[in-house]
Amino acid sequence: MKKEIKVFAPASVTNVSCGFDVLGFAIDWPGDEVILRIKEKPGVKISKITGDGGRLPLDSSRNTAGVSLMSFVEHLGFNKGVEIEIHKKMALGSGLGSSAASAVASVFALNEMLDSPLSRKELLPFALEGEKLTCGGTPHADNVSACLMGGFIIVRSVSPLDVINIKTPANLFCTILHPHIEINTADTRKILRKQVLLSEAVKQWANVAGLVAGLTSGDYELIGRSLHDGIVEPVRSILIPGFDDIKEAAIKAGALGCSISGSGPSIFAFSTSRKIAEKAGTEMKKILTGIEIAGDIYISKINKVGPRVIK
């Protein structure tokens, strides 16, 4: 067994417009890096965190990576200690699954050190333990599933856990604009409507079905027609400065569609080529710059690898 390992776990885009809490996919960058070391003294200890501005707790029981790893260690009956270093390479509260990436990286790393006794799907329940900290109740499985399994996922059920990978077109590109503001996931869930009209729900279900059909068949026009959210996006978008103009700019640049990544503030757009994806990113960022907010642009295909060993 190795004494030390370093892994990278990617950011993820979830909801994907119409698929609130049920759709998600991994991207190439940004993400989190975690270093695990095996120690003789039992227990899980977080020795170092960087890139978080001193905001994340070193207490393993209050950290998503620590909680996930503790549950995995208990399940395995592992009688040695584990020391973790967490290096955040993505912003907190970005809408790109920051807490999920740390949780996934920790359990994936230990599983790799032990020669993979569990499959990635079998690791999901342990990564979800960390997500409970961020939502204060039943965790949403979209971020951790996309991050851990890679590719594009559907969360059919959380209890019992049922996650499915689906195929996506080879030339589907994602542009992500991350405004340098922070939005708390728990807060954005509180402002959502508790009830919706049946007619609105039917439209949403139809768009989810259309989006999945478009992705699996490579029908880009169907993907574009289906990227519409009439329930969650209208509420959450009011928290993102310039959202409507940014969305319009992306579509005018040739993007298939544009919506909020997770709970925001990051915004994603799908395109059929890197050239269009880059043009959409340029136009999206112009709007953000015009309202004097800094931001980052990421261009990625669907990341089908998920977490990986880098050392």
Structure description:
With 311 residues, the chain is α+β, with helices and mostly antiparallel strands. It folds into 2 domains: 4-167 and 304-309, Ribosomal Protein S5, domain 2 (2-Layer Sandwich), CATH 3.30.230.10; 173-301, GHMP kinase, C-terminal domain (Alpha-Beta Plaits). It contains 10 helices and 11 strands. It has helices at residues 64-76, 98-113, 120-135, 142-149, 185-190, 198-217, 220-226, 233-236, 243-252, 274-290; strands at residues 4-14, 23-39, 43-50, 81-88, 152-157, 162-166, 173-179, 257-260, 267-271, 295-301, 308-309. Strands 1, 2, 3, 4, 5, 6 and 11 form a 7-stranded mixed sheet that branches. It has a 4-stranded antiparallel sheet with strand order 8-9-7-10, with helices on both faces. α1 links the parallel β3 (43-50) and β4. α1 crosses α3, α2 runs antiparallel to α3 (120-135) and α3 (120-135) packs antiparallel against α4 (142-149). The longest helix is centred in the last third of the chain and has 20 residues, at 198-217. The two termini are 14 Å apart. The model has no long low-confidence stretch (mean pLDDT 95).
Quick structural gist:
By secondary structure, this protein is α+β, with helices and mostly antiparallel strands. It has helices at residues 64-76, 98-113, 120-135, 142-149, 185-190, 198-217, 220-226, 233-236, 243-252, 274-290, and strands at 4-14, 23-39, 43-50, 81-88, 152-157, 162-166, 173-179, 257-260, 267-271, 295-301, 308-309.
